[in-house]
Amino acid sequence: MSTLNPKTYSPVAAHRVAFLGLGVMGAPMAGHLARAGHQVTVYNRTAAKARAWAQEFGGAHAATPREAVQGASIVFCCVGNDEDLRSVVLGDDGALAGMAPGAVLVDHTTASADVARELYAAARGRGLHFIDAPVSGGQAGAQNGALTVMCGGDQDAFDTAAPVAAAFSRAFTRMGDSGAGQLTKMVNQICIAGLVQALSEAIAFGQKAGLDIPAVLDVIGKGAAQSWQMDNRGKTMAAGQFEFGFAVDWMRKDLGLVLDEAARNGARLPVTALVDQFYADVQQMGGRRWDTSSLIARLR
Question: Based on CB atoms within 10 Å of each CB, which residue in 30, 77, 171, 259 is the most buried?
Fold first, then answer.
């Protein structure tokens, strides 16, 4: 089930849309589109998930991406990685093969900037539009319809998609040309990696010092050390609770994209590379599905 928390939807003309990929992010995002009044057809590699979604939200489901996108003015996508993305977009049964001329494909997968530019060119070659639009906010943001979306692509395609995407986002921002959305998401992940490691060390230090950690976090959270990670993960980290969404496996995938891009553009990321290896340690501890705040576990 993809039960949504209440959200007020701004009035916008109803569109016929498709959504490809119904994971922990995609299913609630598609649900918000349906609740906002759009006519939604979904596709998922596991067909049972698509049928269950259609039963819950009243939309339609299709057997292939090509069938799902037929007649849609906007196609949204959220899958796992570059290859998953190519598999639903390209080929005889892919989305581009079924989209009507002028339609817009908005991809919310966290993927490489290279694949974003590749699919942008493939779409343009068919008279279509492609926006790379990775998201931040996690599963809770998807369920609440409060995701932050960072986009790369042409302005006119962005302008077409933005009012519809407001159903599941609190910010939907064009960052530049094709690939800029994915590069912005990489900046986001670099920040998170460093913040979580610093917070892990701070909490572990405070515990060794015999401090009341919830009280410490309450105090320093009112000053310059405050962050979303501290507010939302600090106390659960101290308690050894790591079941709050974005998994270590996914973070390592994202940091791999970051480090690959840095190797190409010459950016020096010593802390990010180190934290990536710390997450590898967590995987070895059996924490592949723990959330990213589990970095503290390797300090105990």
Answer: 30
